[in-house]
Write a structure and sequence with these properties.
The protein has 144 residues and is mostly helical. It has 5 helices and no strands. Helix 2 runs parallel beside helix 4 and helix 3 runs antiparallel to helix 4.
Length: 144
């Protein structure tokens, strides 16, 4: 099934390149594909560095960096999609790279991941850390 999805995506990309090529011409289409790949590399470098700094700052402030980790993954995915030739992958890559749409995608992805975790491992942001109950262990009074 994943192979069929991949083949369908490749077919859609080729179709879109042909449509844009017939509308703009061959040379502008090729230049547009090259420019989008270069833009993807630049945005990957810039937004990736920004996401890495935000992760480090969250760790230094002793906050859970789950949002920053999700941002880093989305930035990497978006940059990778922008580097691939094709217009559909460029559009999805841009959605992953721009901060407003990345925040929407991050919310959806975190909700999906949390839903798939077992209930014991679920951490819901905003609930805070559960209280720690301290106690001591003492040996039994009557050893046998």
């Amino acid at each position: 099934m994943p192979l069929l999805i991949l083949l369908a995506l490749v077919a859609v990309e080729i179709y879109l390149i042909i449509v844009v090529g017939s509308w703009l011409g061959a040379l502008p289409t090729i230049l547009l594909l090259i420019a989008s790949s270069l833009l993807g590399g630049y945005l990957l470098k810039r937004e990736g560095a920004k996401a890495l700094r935000a992760m480090r700052k969250a760790q230094a402030d002793r906050r859970a960096p789950h949002k920053k980790i999700a941002d880093g993954i989305l930035v990497f995915l978006g940059g990778l999609l922008m580097l691939l030739p094709g217009f559909l992958s460029d559009i999805v890559g841009l959605l992953c790279l721009f901060p407003p749409t990345r925040a929407l995608l991050r919310t959806g992805i975190l909700a999906l991941v949390i839903r798939r975790l077992p209930p014991v491992l679920r951490f819901r942001p905003g609930r805070g850390i559960p209280p720690v109950i301290e106690g001591e262990v003492s040996p039994p009074a009557d050893p046998r």
